[in-house]
Structure formats: C-alpha cells, structure tokens
Design brief:
This protein has 197 residues and is mainly alpha-helical. Helices cover 69% and strands 0% of the residues. The radius of gyration is 19 Å and the shape is globular.
Length: 197
C-alpha cells in the first residue's frame, strides 16, 4: 500500500497560505512597532491584528525576539525602495513611500522614527537602518559627500512619511501620488544626482 501524498497543487496552495500568514504577522508586528514601545507589544496583540492565534506566531517565528528581529530589518524594504536607476530613483522612492502608506498603511522607513521608544532594540533598529538603507544608498551615489547626501535624501522621505502617515496632512492625503511625486521627487533627486558646479 502506498502512502497518501498531498497533490502538488494542494502543497503549493498550503505554501502560499503559509507565506500569506507570515506576511500578515510581519505587517501586524511592523504596524505595532511603529506605534508602541517594543516592551509593550505582546504576541497576543500581534496575533489579534494579524487575525491568527499566538501559537501560530510561535510556529512560524519561534518567539517574540525572533519575530521582531525580522521586523527590525530594513533589508526587503530597502531593496524595493532602491529598485530604480539612479537618475529616476528620487521619483521611485517618493512613489514607493506613498504607495506603501496608501496600499498597506505602513511606511517602509517610518518605524525608524520610533527607535527611541525601543531601548536596546532601538539600537538594533538604528544600526539596521544605517547599514541597510542609508549606507546602501550612499554606495550607489557618485560625487562628493555620498553619505551626507544619502542621509539627506532619506531624511526628506521620512518627512514625507511623517506628514502623510502620522500628521495625516489632509492636503497631502487628498492629492494624487503623481501630483506629489511631481513636486517632491526633484527635492529628493537633488541629493542623489546633484547638479554639477
């Protein structure tokens, strides 16, 4: 008698469901981390927001520290944020920040603003942000002061994220992504590809 096996389509569906569940848990944890101190966030709160049970979080991530180690990484966010040619990067970055806010309710960078709330985890968040976002961007820039220009460009994006996601500026939120990008992208791009003297 042969063992019963799961049809490939059912296995693929289960993998997709598992990945979707993991993504929902990570989104929930990111959302909470951007609004609360790390010490105040419980697995129960993450689970409730994600629509799963706390034991499922333990199954996928092991424990709270392992979950938040993933949340405190900017690697995937930086990859998407910086995924454009340098001469088009300012517009891409502005559009990415706005699309993330509008479609997912989460800014790919904004959780760095809450690093002071997170004690030792805040130090990890800052170190990851520097290495994975600003230093990575600086490595792509040519010309003088690439580190400073990268930090200024990212700081400009953070200001946009704060105004949109935290202050909830009504004029900003009432404008189209293209209208905002038309006005804001040149400011970011000026740091990425400064005009020759």
């Amino acid at each position: 008698m042969s063992a019963v096996s799961t049809p490939p389509t059912a296995a693929a569906s289960a993998r997709r469901d598992a990945e979707a569940t993991k993504a929902a848990i990570l989104r929930s944890a990111r959302y909470l981390l951007a609004r609360h101190a790390h010490a105040d966030i419980t697995l129960k709160a993450v689970a409730e927001r994600a629509g799963v049970s706390p034991p499922l979080i333990l199954k996928y991530f092991g424990n709270k520290d392992a979950l938040f180690a993933r949340v405190m990484s900017f690697e995937a966010d930086a990859e998407a944020l910086l995924d454009a040619p340098l001469d088009e990067l300012g517009r891409h970055m502005v559009r990415h920040v706005l699309a993330s806010q509008r479609e997912r309710g989460a800014d790919p960078l904004l959780r760095i603003a809450f690093a002071p709330l997170h004690g030792e985890q805040g130090d990890i968040l800052r170190a990851n942000f520097r290495a994975q976002v600003t230093e990575r961007l600086a490595g792509r820039l040519t010309g003088p002061d690439p580190g400073l220009r990268a930090e200024l460009a990212v700081g400009t994006l953070l200001g946009l994220g704060v105004m949109y996601g935290i202050a909830r500026g009504s004029h900003l939120r009432g404008s189209t992504v293209d209208a905002i990008a038309d006005r804001y992208a040149p400011v970011v791009q000026a740091q990425l590809t400064p005009a020759a003297d």
